[in-house]
User: What shape does this take?
Amino acid sequence: DIQMTQSPSSLSASVGDRVTITCRSSQTISIYLNWYQQKPGKAPKVLVKAASSLQSGVPSRFSGSGSGTDFNLTISSLQHEDFATYYCQQGYDMPQTFGQGTKVEIK
Amino acid sequence: QMQLQESGPGLVKPSGTLSLTCAVSGGSISTSDWWSWVRQPPGKGLEWIGQIYHSGYTNLNPSLENRVTISVDKSKNQFSLKLNSVTAADTGVYYCARREYQVHMGEWFDPWGQGTLVIVSS
Assistant: This one.
């Protein structure tokens, strides 16, 4: 299985901050990397597909980058509604695997 | 707008069988997409369980494949999950989701059901 490792596991930030979350895969996955946002008690919601393609309806303050084994999700200016847990997921090979999550908390 | 809704018992006894159904509305299950199950233990991350195509062909996570059955009922526009020989480690929220795929972009899960909590306990 392809292992996905996110860093940090959690972070504290203020409204307006720029935040970057990193995801690393145990083998190359080209651009087949997706990012999800999950709020407490809710299902995950896809934010970014194929490393950098923003899902329809997702605010432009979210962006994704990377290829191969190293990927980033950046929130350019953190808003109140962005405090959540973020997961990366590789769509390159089965079984599809997820990172362990990054919890973004209010400072 | 497509919606998915999980249903099934919220409590299963150890060594028993967990059975869930996912009803799809706002679209047909007989498309080029696959239909997946994902689970999340309390306070932990996400684990893909498996997926099914409308033809009945399945892909399963090797870590669970000896205990998992996924089936589809096209007449009811729904698909189902059975997980047998459950233990406390199988406790968690179970989600169904559509697996979307596009050439040169890979695959992702969207939309998701709201999830259903299943507790394994006597």
